[in-house]
Amino acid sequence: MCTRRYIPTYYANNIYEVDIAFYEAENITTLLIDLDNTLDSFKAKTPSEKARSLIENLHQYGYNIIIISNNKGNRVKTYADALDLAYLGNARKPFAYKIKKILAENDIDKEKTLLIGDQLMTDVRAAKRAGIRVMLTEKLVKEDQWTTHINRLFDRPIRRKLKRKNLLNDWREVYEQN
Ligand SMILES: [Mg+2]
């Protein structure tokens, strides 16, 4: 298995541990954030307190945020609306055409865009195809929606290999080198 196309730009245990100053240091102004198991559990119909305060903080610093989820439009809309966020449901990651479209339509600079997600097979692949940077995280909670189980079967060995070969760039290390 070729692991090269799965190497994320950055790695974090979860989105909540990342200092907002890191995004600034890396010249990022737009965050495309995966929903299930990145921001919240797939069971969370509405945003957790944690998610609310993170988004509020990011907004205060002027970040442009779009939720990008493969989940059904309704689930994504309900969640994103509660945070007053732009969103893309049925995003069809690992394909990139919908992501490219939303970036073009909103005149968003790809160079300053980062996708954050917990899955190699969907989030990392889609970001690479769209030509944007990507931060891979671990899953936020244990349980996954059944549709994700098959992706995890492929994800696990690749992730292990990336770790073994030291190909996961922890955001802290990148940050310290700045
Ligand atoms: Mg996810």
Describe the structure.
- By secondary structure, this protein is of the alpha/beta class.
- It has a single domain, classed as Rossmann fold (3-Layer(aba) Sandwich), CATH 3.40.50.
- The protein is 42% helix and 14% strand.
- It has a 6-stranded parallel beta sheet, with helices on both faces.
- 36% of the residues are buried.
- The model has no long low-confidence stretch (mean pLDDT 95).
- Magnesium ion binds at residues 34, 36-38, 117-119.
Ordered list of secondary-structure elements with their pairings:
Blueprint lengths: L9 E3 L7 H6 L4 E4 L15 H12 L3 E5 L4 H10 L3 E3 L8 H9 L7 E5 L2 H11 L2 E5 L8 H19 L6 H7 L1
Parallel strand pairs: 1-6, 2-3, 2-5, 3-4, 5-6
The structure holds magnesium ion.
Bound molecules: magnesium ion
Report the C-alpha radius of gyration, rounded. Answer: 15 Å
Shape: globular
Helix run count: 7
Give the strand order of the largest sheet, numbering strands 1, 2, ... along the chain: 1-6-5-2-3-4
Going by CATH, the architecture would be 3-Layer(aba) Sandwich
SSE run: EHEHEHEHEHEHH
Which fold name fills CATH's third level, the topology? Rossmann fold
Low confidence ranges = none
Give a quick precis of the structure.
The protein has seven helices and six strands, in the order E-H-E-H-E-H-E-H-E-H-E-H-H.
